[in-house]
Write a structure and sequence with these properties.
The structure is a homodimer.
Chain A: E1 2-3, E2 13-15, H1 39-42, H2 48-55, E3 60-62, H3 65-71, E4 79-81, H4 83-89, E5 94-99, H5 110-122, E6 127-132, H6 136-147, E7 151-157, H7 158-163, H8 165-173, E8 177-181, H9 187-195, H10 203-215, E9 220-222, H11 229-235, H12 237-248, E10 255-259, H13 264-278, E11 285-291, H14 296-299, E12 301-306, E13 315-320, H15 342-349, E14 354-358, H16 360-374, H17 380-398, E15 404-409, H18 417-424, H19 435-442
């Protein structure tokens, strides 16, 4: 069963969960002064409308008409009941998913990319620079910039650039310029290359390169694909649509599940439901699923930490493994981030959401079963949600309850087939993190709040 | 604008255009006796239900319930108005497309794969063997076999096997066994490898290997992804859905366009509209688009030719370039076949459909424009349709007419990014075929009908 919405049923406003949070998130701090950052600190990088959204406490923020028009290319996304998966599991649970892989980038990232490109265009920006690791965010921003006539420049972690040439190609198809990072285009890159000419790069280095380029030119801005409040805000179109779709079939989820990398995927589907609960509406359980090899929510500490590994960004209040934490090799590249967004972190601290860490073999098994039954090859990130859905369905059956489960199928895995190949050939393994190393890495987090 | 259908609006019957053709297609001939082949000749390879469909003259053939259930995984497919493409072209034409890339294989091939797997399962078959070139058909059949608990074995042209490892991976993800062809598993393969151990293979060799394996075991059958009447029949769900969708918006196409490789893509979207016209209903123009480097419809001869390059299959009545025609390197692998299905060929001969051959650079330019405006990266095959759509829209504007154009966006290009990469880097070129070589190659076609 697929539940569609018409274009005129698309949400007209984003939902801002801050309005309904009893404990508001703590403010980000300036990396040097350790004082709360103000709009003027962020203005060289972001347009004022996004800075306003970052600190807004309004419950609803209107989605501009041109953004809604661009969303209509691929939204509303379908709400699908995974009947063949249910049958394969032999469960009496009802399993639904929102499918975000139909977007131009093949993932949910397009939802915020379009909004960010629009607000930048409105303020006269000519070019947006960003970093990308696995490539989904860079693809999304490339497409979004093409919609509003903006230039797009992407620093892509060299390891990915070399391993995933097709991700580079699709960004170029949408008109972006893509550089492997470290590059010789920035001071950061030149310094890194002089230390190690064969450096495979890191997201931290790529962020620093993008920020450096953006800061040099008034008409050039920077954009981030997760973590920040305004990014999570834009993703709430997913959950808002899902609420309308459930209303159409007179149903409502008991459990909402999504993977968590920086937090925008999870926030996108879960926050409208969590908000409903915070306002006294129907109770749900919202579960963020992280990889056992990058377990900030379940094994990290809550405190102030840098958003990047180099320590250039403001200090953010979050559950973190420490900004120099290096997760072991993991094919769900989007889940390798060391911290969780301030909003998700505060909600977890207040026990309004749950978190669970899963090993990757279980996740790939779940993804294969999903592909065979539902006909969509999920991104490895999405497999984490699917594995948890299967656990929840079994738990419901064992408890003799009939639960309705919703998860975010955040993207397809068409560019991740080398990961599936490795899994099928038995080359992947689970990871056990060392407690001592975790402590060492977390020592970088400022926990005296 | 997207027009959806509910599951209960899905077609319940396939449409068989043979019923409405004044000149019925000529029968296939036995390769040795040159007499029409009978059901007994085909029974070792195909289930009887498919053989019946191959010769049926009934206008409508019921789609079995389990096939419709499997279709519901990804069907009905949306009918989309390409408003942003229209705007970019500045045309007053209305451009619509059916998007078949949302299927589990990423192309329309799944429509016949599911039906073929079902009928084989019904007759007690345990395994289906097939060949695949670019990989779309092998992917579709792998998925379909997984739905009905059949084994699937795929002989993949070694050139593609080596160049497109992800296509192999996705077939394995759906549970298929994939061999590079030529292999050492068949007499055909062993003979080829003894001649040339480094052979890159061909579709002809891969077909021979698959047929050889299928013929050895009663419980093993063979399946083909295009050309045959029953394959075209199954694809008519595309056009039948489109008719219902146009009815919903009180519209109807003036022109229907699709790429033509073997013919099932084109037939799928066009035959229901052509049939309507044959029965005295609304007139449309149906245009098959082929690559200029494999121009069987526009430069081939009409006669009897083998379906494979080795000459093992029955002789089929078709427009052909000769069964040993070797097209120059072309990234639209699905359009490299030397002949066109008997049904499409007869309709073209009777001037009920049109054909046009386009060069690949124009097609890639059209595909890039489509990706940037509509957010879907098309398969290179689909780019041929898009390029022709753009020509039609411009022609309509020049003629001062407002035309409604429908085309089949038969698949996404997520596994074809090396082709886009080559195009963006200026490595692709157009091809001019030599008239003498075409004549030489076409000499293999038996034209005395």
């Amino acid at each position: 069963m697929k539940v569609y919405l018409n274009k005129d049923e698309m949400p007209t406003h984003y939902y801002n969960i801050v309005a309904d949070m009893l404990n508001k998130p703590l403010p980000p701090l300036h990396p040097q002064t350790k004082q709360p950052v103000g709009p003027q600190d962020l203005a060289p990088l972001f347009p004022m409308e996004l800075i306003k959204q970052e600190v807004s406490r309004d419950p609803y923020i209107e989605i501009p008409e041109p953004v809604r028009e661009a969303y209509a290319i691929y939204r509303p996304s379908p709400l699908v009941r995974a009947e063949r998966l249910e049958k394969a599991l032999g469960t009496s649970a009802k399993i639904f998913y929102k499918y975000e892989g139909g977007s131009p980038s093949g993932s949910h990232k397009t939802n915020t990319a379009i909004a960010q490109a629009y607000y930048n265009k409105q303020e006269g920006v000519k070019k947006i620079v960003t970093e990308t690791g696995a490539g989904q965010w860079g693809t999304a921003l490339s497409f979004a910039c093409a919609q509003f006539g903006l230039e797009c420049e992407v620093f892509m972690v060299r390891g990915s650039y070399d391993q995933k040439p097709y991700r580079k190609s699709i960004m170029e198809t949408f008109g972006a310029r893509v550089h492997p990072s470290p590059s010789n285009l920035t001071q950061t890159g030149i310094a890194k290359l002089s230390q190690d000419p064969d450096s495979l790069g890191s997201l931290g280095i790529a962020i620093s390169e993008a920020v450096e380029v953006a800061a040099q030119d008034e008409k050039t801005h920077y954009a981030l694909g997760s973590v920040l409040n305004h990014v999570l805000l834009h993703q709430t179109v997913i959950g808002l649509e899902a609420q309308k779709q459930f209303e159409k079939i007179n149903s409502y989820p008991d459990v909402v599940i999504a993977p968590l990398g920086g937090g925008s995927n999870f926030a996108g589907i879960a926050f409208p439901f969590v908000g409903e609960m915070l306002r006294g509406g129907r109770k749900i359980r919202a579960i963020a699923v992280e990889p056992a090899s990058c377990p900030k929510l379940t094994r990290g500490v809550f405190g102030y930490d840098f958003g990047d590994s180099a320590g250039f960004t403001p200090l953010l209040p979050m559950y973190s493994l420490g900004h120099d934490f290096m997760p072991p090799g993991l094919h769900a590249g989007g889940l390798r981030y060391h911290g969780a967004s301030a909003l998700c972190s505060q909600l977890l601290k207040d026990e309004l959401i749950e978190a669970v860490a899963l090993q990757q073999l279980e996740c790939f098994r779940a993804g294969l079963l999903f592909a065979k039954t539902e006909g969509i090859l999920p991104a490895p990130e999405a497999n984490h949600a699917i594995a948890q859905v299967i656990r929840e369905a079994k738990a419901a059956d064992e408890a003799g309850e009939q639960r309705t489960i919703l998860f975010n199928l955040c993207g397809h895995g068409h560019f991740d087939l080398s990961a599936y190949d490795d899994f099928i050939q038995g080359k992947l393994q689970d990871h056990q993190l060392d407690e001592e190393q975790l402590k060492l890495s977390a020592a970088g987090v400022l926990t005296e709040l």
